[in-house]
């Protein structure tokens, strides 16, 4: 019985850690992509303004 409890505890902790790392990874990826999108928008805005002149 102790073996089963230990196994479930190990699986639970592993899933918890993986979920935490996945969440952190998603937050980092979101900010990187958001920054890239903002840079692309600024670039296209500059090109559009230059073409209007």
UniProtKB/TrEMBL annotation:
This protein's record includes keyword Transmembrane: yes
Transmembrane portions of the chain: 6-33
Q: Which domain of life is it from?
A: Bacteria
Q: What keywords are assigned to this protein?
A: Membrane, Transmembrane, Transmembrane helix
**Name used for this protein in its record:** Uncharacterized protein
Q: Which organism is it from?
A: Nosocomiicoccus ampullae
Which taxonomic lineage is given here?
Bacteria, Bacillati, Bacillota, Bacilli, Bacillales
């Amino acid at each position: 019985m102790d073996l089963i409890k230990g196994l479930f505890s190990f699986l639970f902790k592993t899933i918890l850690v993986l979920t935490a790392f996945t969440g952190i990874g998603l937050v980092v990826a979101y900010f990187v992509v958001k920054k890239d999108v903002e840079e692309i928008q600024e670039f296209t805005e500059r090109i559009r303004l230059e073409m209007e002149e």
